[in-house]
Amino acid sequence: RRKTNEDADKNDGTENSNDEEEEQPQERVLPSAVRQRNRAVAEREASRLARPERRKVGKLEHATKGKSAVSSTPFGFHAPLHNKQDEDEVQEWCGPFSVARQMISKREEARRQREEEQDTEKEISHPLDAIMEQVEIERKRKAHPSLQWKGKISAEQQTGNIYSKRQRRVQAQGKSKVPTLFQICVDFLVAHFEHVEALGAVDSTIRREVCNGLVAQSKLTGAAFDVIAELGIEALELIDCAEVTQEQLAEALPKLLPAGLRFILLHHSGRCFGPMAVEAICAVPESQLFAISIGGAYLLRDSDASSLLNATAKSLSSIEFKACPNLGPEFCKALNTTFSSAGNGTLLELSLEDLPLSKEDLMSLSDTDAVRNLKSLSLRQVEKVDDEVVLKLLDKVGTQLEGIDLSLCHHITDASLSAIRSCNVGGALRSLQLSGLKHLTEVGLETLFTPVIPGLPSPPMLRSVDLSSCHYEVVTDNIMNLISRASSMKRNSEGDVSQNLSFMGGLVYVNVGGSSCTDTSMESLAATASSSLKELNIGFTPKVTDKGLGYLVSKAGTQLNKIIIWGCAQITDEFLDGHARIADPGLQVVGAW
Fold first, then answer.
1. Over the stretch 186-224, which tens digit does the pLDDT of each residue have?
2. Of 238, 428, 492, 571, whose CB count within 10 A is highest?
3. Which among 373, 540, 560, 551 is positioned nearest to 472, based on CA atoms?
4. CA-CA distance, 560 to 579, in Å (whole number)?
5. Three-class DSSP labels, 11-26
6. How many CA atoms lie within 13 A of 248 on its CB side?
7. Parallel, antiparallel, or unpaired: how do β-strands 489-491 and 497-501 relate?
8. Counting Cβ atoms within 10 Å, is residue 457 exposed (0-12), middle (13-18) or buried (19+)?
9. Whole-model pTM?
10. Pairing of strands 431-433, 464-466
């Protein structure tokens, strides 16, 4: 009986195990409600339980931006580098400008972190938030008075569409403009110039206006040139020499130079100024030529320019060559030797624009002290100009430099800003043109205009500044505030700069087109340059609004005669038809649609 029971138990166990094996797949299937509940729990707890690991980014030790010709990123070299912080910490020079730049950069980083922490704290609501917001609005109104400006638009100006308003505005400006007696006389003279035999003893300004009118009406022919280039004139200025031949100019110069010609200003000279004209100038033994400006002379050779400098070095003090494609090492060598202390000349103004000079040619300009007396230096749009060239040139320049133009020299960085401030020992710098320099940084500009930096002279007190077409985020409200305040500081009898603002004003010509300046910059100009500002260019500056521009016009004096707003679609009729000088023909708003 016991054996029979054991056999029965074994049979039962085998049958139960077989049943369990057959039923096991059916137990794994869960009801849909349970599966949905489990899925909801997993989605809710996924963010807490997940532990993502940062993907390792490989780096080629030998690949650098300067050596590599291609980029592995989809955005090229403009993409942010992973080791940017490490690169910023490396400083090759420990001078005062570099130390100040480092301190300003760290201060900006700390400020950004502090603002992020404050934004995080603001997320927590509080019962007094509404009151605090009202207090903050009142504080902003006191800090930014332009917020309270409102345009005064009459009911008649508000009627009509955008085209009728524009037509009404143009007609109003046309009716208010009355030509002056001087302009009427010039227009009459140009209209009947074929009957004019001589202009007589008139000023060079009148001759220039007559020449401009003749060029505008395509009447500057060879016969008209003979009337303009008469004996006894002091300046020969032509804005377009397309109809003047080289033979005609070469025949006139030997007569004009002994008779007192001192200024030759030929723009768009083309074939007019070449070897024959240079030979005519060099043939005059005792010429008193003081300034020469030649543009677009494609026939002028390098040897001709060298001979011209050697022949006129005793009296020549102002030199300008623009878009002359054949100038090279001989011209630079003559410039370097004839105006040195061992030579005979004194060079006061040097302007080289769009010339194919090599870096060796530019570096040779500072081999001697030929630039020791310069008051104006312009290297505009010369491709080979870089920081090394600027540092070497400014190191040879004396303390009388008043104007610097490095526009469109795309290799310029913050190192040149250090040289600019270091050479401003006498505080004579009044004009700074840095248009189109994409490698400048906000920290570099802030260091250039920050007052009281140990080891550096005072920031320049500018009257003309051009920072247009730089990087969008470089020229900010902070930079404009520093520039406007530095330009309006008082000076004592010893020439030292004080921290008090002058009542005589500051900036006169300002160009910040294509920048990130806002209404705060307009408030800074209104506070420091209201009595001196004459021309303002804010073209393609999207953050300047009607309120900021209207506030500036209401505070500025009547000397403000031109505002350029090309590309500013945010400027509306509130400013165009409602600013304080809407009925004043002396203020010209250019670029208003």
1. 999 999 999 988 888 888 889 999 999 999 998 988 889
2. 238
3. 540
4. 13
5. HHHHHHHHHHHHHHHH
6. 18
7. antiparallel
8. middle
9. 0.76
10. parallel
